[in-house]
Amino acid sequence: MQPTGNETVMESMMRASLALLALAAPLALASCGDPAPTYIDQAWVRLSPNKDTPSAGYFVAHGGDAGTQLRGVLTDYALKVEMHESMTENGMSSMKPISSVDIPAKGTVAFAPGGRHLMIWGVNDTAISRGKMQMTFLLANGDRLLVDAVIQKPGAGEPAAENKAREHAGH
């Protein structure tokens, strides 16, 4: 049985529609992707020259599509970790513990020398000999981010600063 002229036109339109759907599907799926996550990078620890005083930890938190809060940091490679903030009031420098830090959507929060930082008591010898320690960053949205922090011996420079110096030198 021969198709009528109308059936041929209808079939042709259906094929064109299916072809367009096939081309549009990947674009539709791409727009429905997972939201960008919050992440931590540039983590490092400056060891204290005195084992009885705390070491300091630094990192950069990058906000994803939704803002959240950093509620704490844990590690199996030290006795205790606290978030602190340095400040200057009336010409006097001091620091105080902080319980949480807002990480804005698509923003960054730096824990850096002279500002927010981690105080880390009793970094163990295993981490020191490895040159790194794993830390768990606890976020208000329920995420737990595992990050390796590079350990710098007392007096060593900031790892990121050393890398930037090499980049500028053309190495």
Automatic annotation (TrEMBL):
* UniProt signal peptide: 1-30
Give the source's domain of life in one word: Bacteria
Q: Which Pfam families match?
A: PCuAC
Q: Which Gene3D superfamilies match?
A: PCu(A)C copper chaperone (2.60.40.1890)
- Give the keywords, sorted: Signal
Supply the name of the protein.
Answer: Copper chaperone PCu(A)C
Its lineage reads: Bacteria, Pseudomonadati, Pseudomonadota, Alphaproteobacteria, Sphingomonadales
